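We close this part of the discussion by returning to an individual protein. Part of our work consisted of pairing the sequence of a single chain with a tokenised description of its backbone. What the numbers capture is local backbone geometry rather than side-chain detail. The amino acid sequence and the backbone structure tokens for this protein are reproduced below.
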Amino acid sequence: MTSAKAKVIVLGNEKGGTGKSTVAMHLLVALLRQGLRVGSIDLDARQATLTRYVENRRRRDPEGQKLGHPDHRAVPPSVDQEQDAETFRAHVAELSAACDFIIVDTPGSDHPLSRLGHSFADILVTPLNDSFIDLDLLASVDGDSLKIIRPGRYAEMVWDTKKARAMRGESASFDWFVLRNRLSTLDARNKREMERLLDALSKRIGFRLLDGLNERVIYRELFLQGLTLLDVGEEQGVSMTLSHVAARQELRHLIDAMGLASLS
């Protein structure tokens, strides 16, 4: 796949700890393994989880011959927001000319740089922990009736993003996926209510609801090695377990549901 303009995938949520960087790394490796040229930009460069993940990968395979690396950039926020914005735009322009896809990891807060990053999305991916605390950013829910009252702060920000795109003369539409991430394997009332509310909200504000990744220790272990589930195997010195096989299947279902499989 080649194009004059790279497709931009933005990982966004105004709450930390939802697995944005983990999902970002797995998506970019999935694209690299298809022979696609991938760039990545870390707008959450103060926490820098994606940047450290890429650095760990480079230490394991400096030349990228076995694992493959993205063309990675980071934009640490400074006191000069205009300069930060210009730096980001320059990275997007450079990577767009050289890559098929650009993965953008954003801060877990409402920051001007995060809003700018969202406005470049062709695909927006919002990982969401399976809890009412995380849901509050997408929708206000009545505690007694468990009915949606109105869209939440993050949903309103996404709407503002679409208006910003329109003001730049671009299409206001993009694909928005909300991932129910870090799912418990237990069938609990909370889990069923979350599914019901998110299904109703998806029709109301226009996103597609997908199952993300179950909560597994393997993700924290792989981070230190710069690996993803797609890299795991005897050749990388990590033995496959039944849990790893199940986790990799979840990831493949996610990539397929997003339309990112077999793009080369």
In short: Residues 37 and 116 are 23 Å apart (CA to CA). The chain has a mean pLDDT of 88. The domain at 7-257 is CATH 3.40.50.300 (Rossmann fold). The first strand starts at residue 7 and ends at 11.
